[in-house]
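Continuing the batch. This is chain 6 of the set; chains 1 through 5 are on the previous pages. Same settings as before, nothing changed between runs. Recording input and output for traceability.
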Amino acid sequence: MTGVLLNPASLSELTASWIGNDALFYNYELRTSGVAGSGVDGLVYSGNTIETSLFFEFLAQATSYQFYVQSVCESSISNWAGPFNSIILLGDVCATAIDLNSLVSPYNGTTASASSNYSGPCNAGNASPDLIYYIEVLPNAILTIGQTVNGYDSEIYLGYGDACPGAMQIACFDDLDIQNIIWTNNTGITQTVYWVQDGYFNNTNFGTFTLAWNLSPPPACLLPSSLTVNVTSLTTATINWNAPNPDNVNGYEYFYSTSNTQPVGSGIFTGATSV
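Output for chain 6:
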C-alpha cells in the first residue's frame, strides 16, 4: 500500500487511510510505544480490515501515536509499513482549531509540539509546525490582531470564508513578526476568521509567541458605501450610494459645496439613496 496518512479528527479521535493494493486484507496497529508486533506494551488498537481507512476514538490529548499497517496477500504477508506519527494537540489541525473566545488576550503560546499541517501561500510555503486559531466576526465589526512578543521566525496567515483555514486571504507575511492586522468585516455576513501561527521555512522554525486581539462591535449607525457622482449637465449632477448592510438607518444627511472642507452641523435630509 502507499499514501498512508494518520490525522486528528477531533480532540480524542484519529483517522488512518491509505491507498490499497491487491491484498486480501490489512493488519494494523496503533501504538504509543514499541514497534509493530512487539506486544501489548504501548498497544492501543490492533486488528485487521478489508477497508483502506480506519477511525480510532477515546484517545488522549498531547500524546504521540504511531500507526503501522501491513498487507496480507494470498500467498505472502508484507513487512509492516510505518511508523506514521500523529499527536492530538489542541489547534494542531482544523478539526481541533482553537476558539479565541475561549482564551484571554494576550495569550502566550508555543508551536514547539505542533506538526506541520498547513503551508501558507506567501513565501513559497513552508514545512514548519503550526497552530490554528479562529474567531467569529459580526458584519461591520473590526478585528485587530497580532503578535506582541515573538521568540522565533514566524510566518502568519489570516483568512476567512469557506472551510478552515479560510480561502479569502486577509494577510500573509513572514516579517515583521510584531505587527497588528486590522480588518473590518464588510462582507455583510458573520465570518469565521482564522489565524495560522506558522513558521518560516522548515521544521526548526518553532517557538513561543504572545498573541493579542480585540474585536470592536459594529457602530450603532453604519456608513453608506459606494458613493458615485454622475454629471448630467453643466449645472446638474446625480449622486448615488448604497445603503449599509444591515440597513439600520432612518435616512441620510448630505451636503455639497465647492470646497473639500467637511460640513459643520446638519445637512439636508433624505430618505432615498440618491439625490
